[in-house]
Amino acid sequence: MTMPAKLAWPALAVVALVLILAPVDLTGVGIPYPGLKRYGTYIMTLWLVTAIAAMGVNLIVGYAGLETLAQAAFLGIGAYVTALMVKAGLPFGAAFAASGAAAFVVGIVLGFPALRVRKHYLAFVTLAFSVLAWLVFRNEQWLTGGVMGLTDINRPSLFGMSLRRHVNFYWFVLAITAVLTFVLWWIVRSPWGRAFTALRENPIRAESLGIDVRLYTLLAFAIGSAYGGLAGSLYAPLVEFIDPNPFALGPSLLFMLMVVVGGAGRFAGPFVGAAVAVLLPEWLRFAEGFYLLIYAVLVMVMMAFCPTGILGLLERLWAPRRRPFADQKASLLGEAKP
Amino acid sequence: MTAVLEVRDVAKSFGGVHAVQGVSFDVHEGEILGIIGPNGSGKSTLFNCILGQLTPTRGEVRIDGKSVTGLRPSELNRLGISRTFQLLQVFPQLTVRENLILAGQEHQGSRLGRLFGARDAGLGAAADRMIDFFRLGHLARENAGGLSYGQQKLLDAAMAFMAGPRLVLLDEPAGGVNLTMLANLKERLQAINSETRATFVVIEHNMEFVMSLCSRIIVLAEGRIIAEGAPDAVRRDPLVIEAYLGH
Amino acid sequence: MADFLQLVIAGLATGAIYALAAIGFTLLWQTSQTINFAQGEFVMLPAFFALIAMTWFGLPFAVAVIFAIATAMLLLGLVFKLVVVQPLIKQGVLPLVISTIALSVLLKEGAKDVYSAEAQPFPTLFPDITLSVAGVSVSLAQIGVLIVAFGTIAALQWFLGSTRTGRQMQATAQNPTVARILGVAVERMILYTFLINAALAAMASILISPIYLAKFSNGESLGLAAFVAAIVGGFNQVRGAIVGGLLIGVVDNFAAAYVSTSYRQAVPLILLVLIILFRPQGLLGRAEERAV
After folding, report:
1. What would the pLDDT profile of A50-76 be if each residue is shown by its tens digit?
2. How is B154-173 classified by DSSP, letter by letter?
3. SS (H, E, C) C129-158
4. Is B73 an 8 Å CB contact of chain C?
5. Could you give the residue ranges of the DSSP H alpha helices within chain A?
6. Which of B14, B53, B74 is the mutation pick for testing C, counting most C CBs within 10 A?
7. C39: enclosing H helix or E strand
8. Cβ count within 10 A of residue A259
9. pLDDT tier at A325 (50, 70, 90 boundaries)?
10. Which of A20, A265, B236, C198 is the Cys-Cys partner for A62 at CB 3.0 to 4.6 Å?
11. How much is the pLDDT for C41?
């Protein structure tokens, strides 16, 4: 959503404050908020990790207009790389960087075949890769533990302070999420972001303006996938045990859905979409196994009536005809509608 | 002196259809060359072959003596060739100013440098100058999608010039533009041509527009050149009249 | 040699079934630019329609099969077109892609929740007899599948090539704008494509469920087979889907025999990546002009 510069910074500060204090019991200082228990904090952390991966998908799909059905596989790559390195005694920082780098490289390699063909082929190539990656995760027992997976993935410690406590780990993930969000925001605002938009809106025109469409496609895809790897790197110590299940094709499809539900091409979209994806199973607990079914129906209805997602819907309600703050320079949260 | 653009025996066939059958011509610096011809004469195909959108079946295209046949449009753009499109292709979701910055940004420094550099890639001032030149000042911060057709045409032309190109190929720039805007467009094109000594090649159907804008005309019919010369001479050429009447 | 031939025949049998799924998928894409990510689920579901007819309504198998095909044509053809695709065509490509992805989730969860999460045995159309032809043992089921599948394909090709409606459908697939100008009722042709796709998918479902059992999760691998077959064969034509389907069936069967079972699924996928790398127009497709 676009907002004038003078509202954006205070709004961001409020959001930051809310996120930092969310797990804390504030009754001691007179505010009737009991804080989140262990499980609640875990869910918040899971939301942040999911949002990081969703941001990657948003870059690929929302900003660059491409397709990816493999984000869960990249999460898997990140998760396994980190798990293996951490269990081998290497510092988390190295594992985190390695996870991102591995996902980036694989993203470039995967992007190549797709460059040669028309748009939707990327969806199928990523689909195939998703299944292939999952097969490797499942079969290479000597490396990944196969179906049994890898256990006892320790949470890192920062400057000697252990992050085992859920709250501490949450704040750690929150800090990293903030950094990654800033990095993505910078990219989207930069000339690269403009080139991605051009690539999405009109690749032929973009080419004729000197924009190397193939290179920017690879970059968008690789960066977006790297975010998946980084999310995976945080996922492993969050759940402390990984197996191939969360990295199969199904979850990749859910990533696509959540980005569009949140609002593709809108900067805050992934956070909204991830919130829906993580919280919906909780809210629909009473419906037991039906929640995916309900989710799917809701997505289909949403696509028919408001394909710009939840944020698009809010935008429509906020400023029905003309956006009053159309000044591109003042828009802090970059916007590029699909 | 080498011509800016040399087209040598370029031909393009699609299966059994010979859209362009061996076309050769030169364009010199600062010239405004017009290419006209009835529908289906191969003008657009020829254009696309020069611009890397299509690979010619045969023949060669040279820019400043250097062979560029078959290069991709983005590479050609970086060699100083730019184009406008027959069907408008501005970016409707970006503002006028953003469109212009986009049009020039790939020529500013290195790709990596652009990631860490200024948001407008240092083109803010240049974009503003271009906006003034094409008299779009009041629309600078409007989304391009909200502009009138004629205004978008001006923007499209302005975008082609942002990168300071050597050679600009204009694909039916007058199409669908009202008379007032047309006069404006023609005048601006002539102004930028004399200011920058950029070379133009224009495809057009609008006879009046092309005759008054161009210094030299080439006529295509059925994929071949049937006449070449000054506008007046071409206008009176019986072959040309026949080609048009015959369709 | 006998083993080899056996594998080929078995492969052709499953391949013919994949071809049915791939043909429908290709037709939908050609005529209405719809990429149906739920195609695998379209092949998974009709078997459940038949099971419901048999277990809930006590209908005999033959009637259940007809019920399944009819229900598929209604729900996965007509309703799919009117309710899912039509409202979304004007919203652009991405919403439609997302919607069919969501639909695949919906159908998969639906089958699991409404019927069962367990794999269900499914009756076969053909008696369980094995023949020996020139030293090669072939099951009647495989021959039956080949006959039924190829029969359907032949009927479809005849319909498309020799009937007026069929030719109009082809015209719509080649170029809907021109077809409209020529007086073809394009909307109706598109509807027919949806109905045909549903019918083909239903047939594929009936033929394949005896082999792989009816399970809610089958959609994933069936869908992949359809996509790979369509792309490998050459996305822009029906013949490509046929060749692609048969090829995938044979490759898959050989992979099951000679490659470890755990990586069997990988072989068609690797084939897909290779085709996209080296011959993106597919085996039968025409090389397209570079657009960019």
Report:
1. 999 999 999 999 998 888 999 999 999
2. HHHHHHHHTT--SEEEEEST
3. CEEEECCEEEEHHHHHHHHHHHHHHHHHHH
4. yes
5. 5-21, 38-57, 71-87, 92-115, 120-139, 141-144, 166-189, 191-201, 203-208, 213-239, 249-262, 269-283, 291-305, 309-318
6. B53
7. helix C39-55
8. 32
9. very low
10. A265
11. 94
Across the interface, do A197 and B93 touch by the CB < 8 Å criterion? yes
Q: Structural domain boundaries of chain B? A: 5-245
Q: Is C277 near chain A, with CB under 8 Å? A: yes
Give me the torsion for CA of B46, B47, B53, B58, rounded to 10°.
30
pLDDT band at A338 (very low <50, low <70, confident <90, very high): very low
User: CA C264, CA C251: separation in Å to the nearest integer?
Assistant: 10
The percent of residues in chain A predicted with pLDDT above 70, rounded, is: 90
- C164 in B contact zone (CB under 8 Å): no
Average pLDDT, integer, range C32-43 = 90
Structure tokens at A63: 């900003």
Distance (Å) from the alpha carbon of B83 to chain A's nearest alpha carbon: 7
Residue C289: list chain B partners with CB under 8 A.
54
Q: Average per-residue pLDDT in chain A?
A: 84
Q: What is the 3-state secondary structure (H, E, C) of A111-151?
A: HHHHHCCCCHHHHHHHHHHHHHHHHHHHHCHHHHCHHHCEC
- Chain C hits for B73, Cβ within 8 Å: 292
- Put simply, the chain C residues between 203 and 232 with a CB less than 8 A from any chain A CB are 220, 224, 227-228, 231
Q: Comparing B118 with C46, which gets the higher pLDDT?
A: C46
Per-domain boundaries in chain A:
38-248
Complete domains list, chain C, with CATH: 2-278 (1.10.3470)
Pick among B54, B84, B91, B170 to test the A interface (most A CBs inside 10 A): B91
Q: Up-side HSE of residue A39: CA atoms within 13 Å toward CB? A: 3
Average pLDDT of the residues in A313-335 = 54
CB < 8 Å to A115, chain B: none
Question: How sure is the predictor about A224, in pLDDT bands with cuts at 50, 70 and 90?
Answer: very high
What is the CATH class of B5-245? alpha beta
pLDDT of B169 over the 70 cut: yes
Strand segments (E) across C106-216:
130-133, 136-139
Smallest Cα distance from B240 to chain A, Å: 32
Six-digit token string for C93:
């490509």
Q: How many CB pairs under 8 A join B and C?
A: 6
Summarize the confidence of residues B177-203 as an average pLDDT: 86
The predicted-structure confidence for B29-62, as pLDDT tens digits, reads as follows 888 999 988 887 888 888 888 888 888 888 899 8
Task: Give the closest of C109, C112, C277 to A296, CB-based.
Answer: C109
**Straight-line distance from the first to the last Cα atom of chain C, in angstroms, rounded to the nearest whole number:** 48
Contact B106 A197 (CB under 8 A): no
What is the Cα–Cα distance from C77 to A247, expressed in whole angstroms?
32
pLDDT in tens, C194-206: 999 999 999 999 9
A329 vs A8, higher pLDDT: A8
